Amino acid sequence: MDTAYSPEDLAFRDEVRDFFQEAYTPELRQRMRSSHKEGAEEWQRKLNDKGWVAPNWPVEFGGTGWTATQKYIYETERSLAGIPNVIPFGLVMVANVIMAYGTDEQKEYFLPRILKSEDWWCQGYSEPGSGSDLASLKTKAERDGDDFIINGAKIWTTYAQYADWIFCLVRTDNSGKKQEGITFILIDMKTEGIKVNPIISIDNHHSLNEVEFSNVRVPAKNVVGEVGKGWTVAKALLAHERTGIAGVADVKRAVRVIKEVAAKEENGGQRLVDDPGFQQRLADIEVELMALEFTELRTLAAQAAGGFPGPESSLLKIKGTELQQATQELLMEIAAYYQGVLPTDLEPDALGHEFTTEARMSYFYGRAATIYGGSNEVQKNIIAKYVLGLE
Amino acid sequence: MNFDFTEEQQMVRDSIARFVQDDYDWDTRKSIVASEKGLSPDNWKLFAELGWLSIPFAEEHGGFGGNIVDLSVVMEELGKGLVVEPYFPTVVLFGGLIARAGNDAQRAEWLPRVIGGDVLGGFAYVERQSRFALHDCLTTATSSGDGFVLNGEKVVVFNGEQADHLVVLARTSGEQSDRTGLSLFIVEASAAGIDKMNYPMMDGQRVANVTFKDVALPADALLGEEGQALALVEALVDEAIIALASEAVGIMGVLNTKTLEYAKTREQFGVAIGSYQALQHRMVDTMMAYEQCKSLLFKALCEYKQDPAMAAETIHALKVLIDRNAKHVFGEAIQIHGGMGMTDELDIGHYAKRLMMINTTFGDANFHRNRFVETAFAA
User: Fold this and answer.
1) In terms of DSSP bridges, do strands A147-155 and A140-144 run parallel, antiparallel, or are they unpaired?
2) Distance of alpha carbon B219 from alpha carbon B185, whole angstroms
3) Helix axes A356-366, B348-360, angle to 10 degrees
4) In chain A, what percentage of residues exceed pLDDT 90?
5) How far is CA B166 from the centre of its chain?
6) Domain shared by B243 and B213, yes or no
7) Which residues sit opposite B206 in a β-bridge?
8) In chain A, fewer beta carbons within 10 Å around the N or the C end?
9) CATH label of the domain that carries residue B109
10) Which residues of A are catalytic?
């Protein structure tokens, strides 16, 4: 029982901290807000120049070779510095699938491009009729010589409006069980017959889309893994998502921000940060957060020991997203009347408030955290079945 | 013991419900919110013709002479349709203040205009630093000749963009947080020295930050006794909280009904998602959350109708419970609607946003829990 960092780990932490301080400039921070795509690409290229853009990749493909502790330190420092995660669709999701199931040609072509952020990727899983029940997907791919002809629609596709490529689950066979006959395929978004329809979400922002395919011709060599085995590929990817960390550092940073802004708000002479009711609710969040930090460390230790993460990893997503939502709710309360302000041309000084847009957008977009990546209900089904053995 | 509504109340309820159903569908509401004014002048005229704007006012001014229950019925039904026309700022706040604080001449001048739909009003009371403390007021009105000169700034004034007249809370004496020395003034929104910065809110309202620079007010702009406004405002706020709670109850009922419908029709894994026990229990919880709010609202209505002072403790409790249960209800509505619940296109998120604004208006749960502790534990 020991969680103290070694001198090497401490030195690594300082290196990471210094790099973030120097590389993530205020100008870049502003650009990430004003133009998400350009900002994210610029940051990812900086990380790639440093060799840090893909800590979880094997070294042979361009990973860092860090220990589990180093990865943890890196993620923690990133969150505390208020730096968003890399866009996961290329660097985390499709890259892992290509590394595990792709042909040599696919690896040689796509992986270096992903490292250099030359392609923007998006994920084509959900369909209008297939949410939690992903295997019921209907987008059809029919063989035609060396190609597949694709028809159907994907929905909730984050940043499809920027994407050069989409990785999709499509149905190549209808005859067997619904999990069979699904194929994982990579589609160039410039192909004729693809239409991207924006969906404005409740944070009044455009990040989601519906992607329609009508007679889209895709080379069969773009299939990853075997035709008809896409469900196995997809499941491997989902498992990879679930072993991600719970975002403890993000919640820690949110708590720090809450304390800062609550110190500036007063109700008739009493600072909100000194209000016992407010303090107790913040304390409830911090207590749960302390525990979650060590749940995360237990998962990490299990992974470091080479084992699979145990049952404790299953609760990371559920508890992590619940705590995120609790901090987002407190930030809205602090904003009081200003929480409802929609984006305006008014400067914060004219408006009389600084963080209202951030509070509102993160609160409402944050509602999705318990829905995407397998809703928390589906997560609980997984725990019930695979951890508790309940059928 | 009787929790029934009168025949008259039922008629008002039906008439608003019919309007919402026939003339205020979701697309209509969206286009009104997106329109230049953010409200429909035709609807406002219609509300006047149907008598809805007259509900809380005395018959001698052309009003319906309604009590708090009548007002509650109106607000609940308007809430169900997410009606953005400024009933709350104009009738409940602006009209309510004049009815309470005005002298005979002021009431005779203004209330018929409110009832007739000829005035759009607002109440300017929030300041940058004030949060929910009504008496934390830096805006000043100083005596000058026969009248006053107004200086300062009010923020997030509901209906501030469209209001042609405002009631403004200003300090005529004392220091920033003194409970005495506050006065109310009726101010023409286009008067010289007034600058408005308009902006839209997430619940479809148009609000404004209003700055006053040496705005000259005549003596008869003063509403009520000079320096004694706080008690009047606090009394109005009690009524306003009941009105908002009624609106919230209306919205929560709609959210539960829509979510239940969705759960019965949306199929995953070959069955309606409503057949899953995990979701059934959650919808039972939101049903209970709604019924509990309704019960506490009824308690507040019964007490307030008898004697407004009797309802003080219940009103704090109501604000706490509505805040907590509204978040619970809309949280589950979004979650159970899944990805659809996350879209701006669907109405679910818009009901949620209105509930959030109701929660923060005149103090959130944290604020009223503290007031409740002061009131209830002091005894």
Assistant:
1) antiparallel
2) 9
3) 130
4) 61
5) 15
6) no
7) B200
8) N
9) 1.10.540.10
10) 241
Q: What is the CATH number of the domain that holds A48?
A: 1.10.540.10
Among A136, A338, A371, whose Cβ lies nearest the Cβ of B342?
A371
Beta partners for residue B215, in sequence order: B150
Q: Which residue did the predictor score with more confidence, A380 or B258?
A: B258
- B126 chain-A contacts, CB cut-off 8 A: 337
A202 to B349: CB separation less than 8 angstroms, yes or no? yes
Structural domain containing residue A170:
120-229
In a 13 Å sphere around the CA of A208, the CA atoms on its Cβ side amount to 22
Mark yes or no for CB contact A367/B156 under 8 Å. no
Quick one: closest CA in A to B203, which residue? Answer: A340
Exposure b/e, B294-304, CB count within 10 A at least 16 = b: bebbeebbbbb
Nearest CA in chain A to B349: A202
Same domain for A133 and A37: no
Burial (0-12, 13-18, 19+ Cβ within 10 Å), B36:
exposed
Say whether B199 and A346 touch across the interface (CB within 8 A).
yes
Domain around B155? 122-227
> Quick one: pLDDT at residue B327?
97
Tokens read off for A327: 């901090």
Q: In terms of domains, do B222 and B129 share one?
A: yes
Q: Is B3 exposed, middle or buried (0-12, 13-18, 19+ CB in 10 A)?
A: exposed
Compute the distance between CA of residue B14 and CA of residue B29 in angstroms, rounded to an integer: 19
If asked whether residues B240 and B358 sit together in one domain, one would say: yes
The Cα–Cα gap between A49 and A28 comes to 16
Q: Which of B331, B349, B356 sits opposite A332 (nearest CB)?
A: B356
One domain for residues A262 and A359: yes
pLDDT tens-digit map of A200-253: 999 988 999 999 999 999 999 999 999 999 999 887 776 655 545 567 888 999
B336, B282 Cβ separation under 8 angstroms:
yes
Q: Let me know: does B189 contact B163? Beta carbons within 8 Å.
A: yes
Count other C-beta atoms under 10 Å from residue A353's C-beta.
21
User: What residues of A are in contact with residue B278 (Cβ under 8 Å)?
Assistant: 377, 380
Query: How far does the CA of residue A245 sit from the closest CA of chain B (Å)?
Result: 22
**Contact call for A371 and B360, based on CB within 8 A:** no
For A136-165, b/e burial (b = at least 16 CB within 10 A) is bbebebeeeeebbbbbbbbbbbbbbbbbeb
